[in-house]
Amino acid sequence: MLLSRNRVIEGIIFPLFIFGACTQPEKPDSYVARVNNSYLTEAEFSELVDSQNVSEKTKTLVIKNWVKQEILLQEAIKKGITESNEFKRTVENSRRQLASSLVLQYFAASSQPVVTNEELENYYKENKSSFRIPFNAYYLNRINFSDREAAVMFRTELMINGWTLALNKFSNDSSLINFEGAILISEQNIYPVRLLRILEGLYPLEISIVIPDDRGYYTVVQLLDKYSAQSSPPFEAVKTEVERRYKAALTELAIENYINDLYSLSEIEI
Asked: Where are the beta strands (DSSP E) in the chain?
């Protein structure tokens, strides 16, 4: 539900932003794109896309989309479409949808539920069948290094002292790339393929050899357990997903109660 609201907001904001862009009266000192007397400034472009974290291809697509919509908007203005009653009704309806979506988004952000482990366990038990996994999956600890020797030494430490102590000892190692503890991952998402083949041959709590890949990483995994397709993993293996779903359900309920409260405070005739 929240995802669909975000899509509604995106669909409303972008056209309204474009409409405002074409009415700029002055030429800016610098700009990303121009259509006649309308300019897309750096500041406006940064509102459309996070220029620090997207590819040049994505930036180019956003700019092309802005240009296309600006051309069409200017043509609509020339034809008087933006002065028509139909256009004004559409803008007003978009304004209503945007305001409605934003007020619910703000409410949801300000009322994030705090849940206990007991609540999560109870929710899991009541909905256990819905947590069946569609594919074979592996529950494991995984760590990646950029240096093979470091990976070998970590593996030795892991065999002697266990995951937590080994991780503490290597947490500041400069060759440590990343690590994930107690994650449930489906077989089609395991990379490289060689790792999947190794996991298929491991027993719970066994540790893999050091596995190189084409990124220049050296991986060590400890298999905690494995689950077949359509099985229901234990609570701890799916705790993150349980928490996500439970919080989403609580948020939806809070939104419903919020809307009911607004109804009770308003004079409504139908």
From this structure: 33-35, 38-40, 137-145, 176-186, 211-212, 218-227
